[in-house]
Amino acid sequence: MTVIRQDDFIDSMADALQFISYYHPLDYIQAVHKAYEMEQNPAAKDAMAQILINSRMCAEGHRPICQDTGIVTVFLKIGMSVQWDARMSVADMVNEGVRRAYLNPDNVLRASILEDPAGARKNTKDNTPAVIHMEVVEGDTVDVQVAAKGGGSENKSKLVMLNPSDSIVDWVVNTVPTMGAGWCPPGMLGIGIGGTAEKAAVLAKESLMDPVDIQELRERGPANRIEELRLEIMDAVNKLGIGAQGLGGLTTVVDVKIKDYPTHAASLPVAMIPNCAATRHAHFVLDGSGPALQTPPSLDDWPNITWEVGEGVRRVDLDTVTREEMAGWQPGDTLLLSGKMLTGRDAAHKKMKELIESGEGLPADVDLKDRFIYYVGPVDPVRDEVMGPAGPTTATRMDKFTDFILEHTGLMGMIGKAERGPTGLEAIKKHKATYLMAVGGAAYLVSKAITEAKVVAFPELGMEAIYEFEVRDMPVTVAVDINGESVHRTGPAIWKAKIEEQALELI
């Protein structure tokens, strides 16, 4: 009989979570590199270059791939013959492993989990609890799959109850464009089919644990209907032209994963969950011989990509930039930002609005007039870092605040991830502001542009506090100009037409 010790389980869990915070699965990196080599849209190619460079930097520096170090999801298959040498429950052991991983002083991970989600939304401060799925199976081992899922991609999850005669491919093709780019493509789509509503969602999440192997499937040919669906959906989604970061291009997904389960004759539940550019998952098996620790990959397997400042890149001094200068920026332009900016995301925007409406006004160090605000919740720094990984968060969550903040503060521009929605676009156009996009999935690379950082307001909000960053040559793309023209509208439309007209080769 196999005996699993408590410390071995906890150590293995903590090790896996640290490991996936800075090591991408190599199969994903190889898929993105192939997409990078094939890409014809310079903006999308540039975004993938930043993702690949960031990945190598994180592997070398053992720091998080993304500032959003995710909500932990665990799939456990516990053998019926296993005996536990433990005082804690299995769930408590999982959460102790999460706690140790996220509070590791050598590589502090961002705590993003809030309790009382419909009320006070108070941070648990150690990223617990995890979402745990347990199954008792035949055997004498404990099989563990663990993932850390970012909120930007998780928020784009979709569930539908189709009629049995409906087309799953059509639903996916019609749904993916509604997801925008907040899930940070290029990534993977996990699809669960069958069972009940909740079973389909679990299947979709579990499918994302599988390796990237769509090219091998394409080469050998499909052996069943599920494999046919994978290829059909992959090709149909990439023909949409959404591209990396939603900028338009040839590759939106690098794989489509599907799991299915028997369902009721009257039902066809389908769930779709995307995995982002910060794809993070690991697998280990405990057999009673001790902890199951991850094996570091060879950095020689990472592509050697460089990012060059092109001829058309503009350098912008945030301390002196004028609205007249900003008026000359066009959607798709690449800028290098230097100077001081403030940060703020959901909780900070809500608090700023409340303070302005109450008549109290903003804190003295939060003067937004003619300045830029960066939508970010950074990772705490370690060792000699000025700031930990500090990539952008999804900008559409701030849309409902945008008109109010622009109206009452004189803010000039915003920096975030992915597209702006209709409300945000209208506010930007109305106030002649602008919106710049940083690459989601390049958080450590972005952090290297930060030369000074300090909290200037709302320290009680933790990672959602308002910081003042000083940056040097922080790369961004003009996503929305002062007239409300959005590259996330024009880019995919242009590349969808090019793919249709020219029959361009897709990944």
CATH class of the largest domain: Alpha Beta
* Poorly predicted segments: none
Find the CATH topology of the largest domain. Answer: fumarase
First CA to last CA: what distance? Answer: 47 Å
Query: Sheet bearing the most strands, described?
Result: 5 strands, mixed, barrel
Helix tally equals 15
Helix content: 25-40%
% residues in beta strands: 15-25%
Question: What's the structural domain tally?
Answer: 3
In the CATH hierarchy, the architecture of the largest domain is Alpha-Beta Barrel
Radius of gyration from CA coordinates: 23 Å
- Kindly report the name of the CATH homologous superfamily of the largest domain: Fe-S hydro-lyase, tartrate dehydratase beta-type, catalytic domain
Structural class: alpha/beta
Provide mean pLDDT, rounded. 96
Shape: globular
Strand runs, count = 19
Oligomer: single chain
**Main sheet: strand order:** 14-15-16-17-19
Brief description of this entry?
The chain has 507 residues and is of the alpha/beta class. 33% of the residues lie in helices and 23% in strands.
